[in-house]
Amino acid sequence: MIMMGAGMIMGASYYMGLPKEKKQSIKDKASKMISADKEFMSDLSM
């Protein structure tokens, strides 16, 4: 759990240093991954 937190902080600080259009593509990828995860999880729970 603590390792995850450190990774998140590292990712966040790296993310903050990125140019705006790069951030947008990362956001898009992240939201795609999150929605894919949700679909996967709902498939599992059926």
Report what the structure shows:
The chain is mainly alpha-helical and 46 residues long. 89% of the residues lie in helices and 0% in strands. The protein is built from two helices and no strands. The longest helix is centred in the C-terminal third of the chain and has 26 residues, at 20-45. The protein is flat and about 40 Å long. The mean pLDDT is 80.
The assigned structural class equals mainly alpha
Listing every helix as H and every strand as E from the N terminus to the C terminus, the arrangement reads: HH
Label the overall shape. flat
Helix fraction by DSSP (H/I, runs of at least 4): over 70%
Multimerization status: single chain
Q: Helical segment tally?
A: 2
Rg estimate, integer Å:
14 Å
Total beta strands: 0
Question: How much of the sequence is in beta strands?
Answer: under 5%
Biggest sheet statistics: none
**Unreliable parts:** none
Q: Please state the average pLDDT score.
A: 80
Distance between the termini: 28 Å
